Amino acid sequence: MRKFNVIAGGAALLLSAASAHAQVMVIASNPQGSVFYSSSVGIAKVMDEKLGTQVRVQPMGGSSTYIPLINRGEVELGLTNVDDTRTSFKGTGSFRQPNPNLRLITVAFPLPLGIVVPADSPIKTVADLKGKRMPGAYVAMTTGRILQQTALASAGLTPKDIKEVPAPNLFAGVDLMAAGKVDAATTAPGVAQVQKAHAELSSHGGVRFIPIEFKPEHVAAMRELMPVRPVMVQPASHMAGVVGPTQFMSYSVFLTTNDKMSDETAYKIAKMMHDNKESLVKATPALNRFDPNRMSEDIGVPFHPGAIKYLTEIGQWPPKD
């Protein structure tokens, strides 16, 4: 097995001329420590092993930074959540210009998201958040606002029902909770910030996630904001704050490319993802949520023709939901 290298930022220039015979590709990702980064590293490693490509992962500030690069063909691949994918394609939300060249290869994984509180907090449900302090604004992460609004909608609440404390993104919001400046924070389980907060709040018993309910009277309002689904997350050593089987809301993350990628390459990547779940999970536990039997989803953004060819062969095209 060839040695796999992840080269970030300007260090990418160090790729040797000896590797020129192999196709060099870039996967852009969120910053190191994020689920997107660890998942990108895992995908890149398996691509390197199975497809003979030379892949490097380039962390950036967020998908709003690298989606335009994917659209222009300056970056081959990136993980993008459903909200950023839809709004960037259309040029709405935080994206002032449409990105019509985006193409999807596969659903990479559903990303669970919930609300975390200090373990000894009296907050037990989303409804209990009314009047409480939570991070807000998320000026550097528009999707964070939509996600938090969706979580609040599960109890019929809106941002007006909480006391917002400005934070640039969800990660910083967890830090505010660890510092005692907010009562709860919206985040994904298993991320580094939650592990850090769990340690910093040890005198409070650590942290605890509260369940996100999908009550019939609130589901429509939630899905009008984001196409979310319920998902049950089990306790695990890397899941700080998941003290028992806990229901989260989840939304899809896609492996995204552009229309400049060849049909052959897109086909091979889709097939590689489908055929190598074990290798992907071995590369990073974050990819345990990848489901080879659910690789397509209709979100109004085109799939790459090469990916469509493979998904058709395995009976997953057109999308069933």
- Average per-residue pLDDT, rounded, comes to 91
Low-confidence parts lasting 5 or more residues at pLDDT below 50? 1-21
Task: Report how far apart the termini are.
Answer: 39 Å
Q: Count the beta strands.
A: 10
Question: Portion of residues in helices?
Answer: 25-40%
What would you call the structural class?
alpha/beta
General form: globular
Q: Could you spell the SSE succession in H and E letters?
A: EHEHEHEEHEHEHEHEEHHH
| Largest sheet features | 8 strands, mixed
Would you spell out the secondary-structure blueprint of this structure?
Layout: E1 24-29, H1 35-51, E2 54-59, H2 63-72, E3 77-81, H3 82-90, E4 102-118, E5 133-137, H4 142-153, E6 163-167, H5 170-178, E7 185-187, H6 192-200, E8 207-210, H7 216-225, E9 229-233, E10 246-258, H8 263-275, H9 277-283, H10 305-313
Parallel strand pairs: 1-2, 1-3, 5-6
Antiparallel strand pairs: 3-10, 4-7, 4-8, 4-10, 9-10
Helix pairs in contact: 1-8, 1-9, 4-7, 5-6, 8-10
Can you give a write-up of this model?
This protein is of the alpha/beta class and 321 residues long. 33% of the residues lie in helices and 21% in strands. The chain is built from 10 helices and 10 strands. Strands 1, 2, 3, 4, 7, 8, 9 and 10 form an 8-stranded mixed sheet that branches. Strand 5 (133-137), helix 4 (142-153) and strand 6 (163-167) form a beta-alpha-beta unit. The longest helix is centred in the N-terminal third of the chain and has 17 residues, at 35-51.
Jot down its keywords.
two-stranded parallel sheet; alpha/beta; 321 residues; globular; disordered N terminus
